[in-house]
């Protein structure tokens, strides 16, 4: 099984930290070149320097919720060596947490814009160049919150469910042009973003109770699958959304009440809003 990405160019969105940074490091280790994308130019520059500098890693500050910026990112990656071979779309997040009766509607819209529209913009423009180049691989980073209900996660789960569907739709449409499109649903991955969860004894214990394999995930668990899906070893795999979660998807979403009851109260968590 050959997992070499030598001589190939990839875009990694959300590349300034967490899963995106880990994926970029794995792609470079497999011989590939990476165009990092994200909103924070300083963070991207630091990661690019850490991973090897100008020859193997470049960066393009990008807000993927603006289609023109997503298009510019793809153009820059393609122009680097004349062809784009694949994308790992890791950019995403949420501004909403708490009972649905108390969610800020503007924050809901921004989260949907990032996770749904941003995904579509990156895919739309990357797919054009992948088709022109004769094929390639697009990997979208989703979440088990898309398939297992996570109470009080707000727009995050629904918008990641939309990402899953976009991956499957694109796989069906782009297969005849040899463009493969797959998704990955991470479970709880140890990054700075999930620090508050890991620091909560009640919530972290519940995650452990929900996960058959007795540890939390590492960024490398996601990065390893990304490299496989980008490589020729996965050339007959498309339209899949693969859980990398230690088996968490077999059970249920986490119980976050240990953290959130302090903020919203027991009545608030069941939807009570004072007039």
From TrEMBL:
Gene3D superfamilies: NAD(P)-binding Rossmann-like Domain. One of its GO terms (molecular function) is glucose 1-dehydrogenase [NAD(P)+] activity. Residues 8-187 form the Ketoreductase domain. Keywords: Oxidoreductase. InterPro entries: KR_dom (IPR057326), NAD(P)-bd_dom_sf (IPR036291), SDR_fam (IPR002347). It comes from the Bacteria. It is an enzyme of class 1 (oxidoreductase). Signal peptide: none annotated. Coiled coil: none annotated. Its EC number is 1.1.1.47. Pfam families: adh_short_C2 (PF13561). Belongs to the short-chain dehydrogenases/reductases (SDR) family. This is Glucose 1-dehydrogenase.
């Amino acid at each position: 099984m050959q997992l070499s990405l030598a001589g190939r160019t990839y875009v990694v969105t959300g590349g300034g930290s967490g899963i995106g940074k880990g994926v970029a490091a794995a792609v470079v280790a497999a011989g590939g070149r990476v165009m990092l994308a994200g909103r924070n130019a300083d963070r991207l520059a630091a990661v690019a320097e850490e991973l090897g500098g100008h020859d193997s890693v470049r960066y393009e500050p990008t807000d993927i919720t603006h289609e023109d910026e997503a298009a510019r990112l793809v153009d820059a990656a393609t122009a680097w060596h004349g062809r784009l071979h694949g994308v790992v779309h890791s950019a995403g997040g949420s501004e909403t947490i708490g009972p649905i009766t108390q969610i800020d509607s503007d924050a809901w819209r921004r989260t949907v814009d990032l996770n749904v529209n941003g995904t579509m913009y990156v895919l739309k423009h990357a797919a054009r160049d992948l088709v022109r180049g004769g094929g390639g691989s697009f990997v979208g980073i989703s979440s088990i919150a898309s398939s297992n209900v996570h109470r009080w996660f707000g727009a995050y789960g629904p918008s990641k469910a939309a990402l899953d569907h976009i991956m499957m739709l694109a796989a069906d449409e782009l297969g005849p042009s040899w463009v493969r499109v797959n998704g990955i649903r991470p479970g709880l991955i140890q990054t700075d973003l999930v620090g508050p969860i890991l620091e909560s004894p009640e919530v972290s214990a519940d995650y452990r109770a929900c996960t058959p394999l007795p540890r939390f995930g590492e960024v490398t668990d996601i990065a390893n699958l990304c490299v496989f899906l980008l490589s020729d070893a996965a050339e007959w795999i498309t339209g899949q959304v693969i859980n990398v979660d230690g088996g968490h998807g077999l059970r249920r979403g986490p119980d976050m009440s240990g953290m959130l009851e302090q903020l919203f109260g027991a009545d608030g968590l069941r939807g009570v809003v004072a007039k």
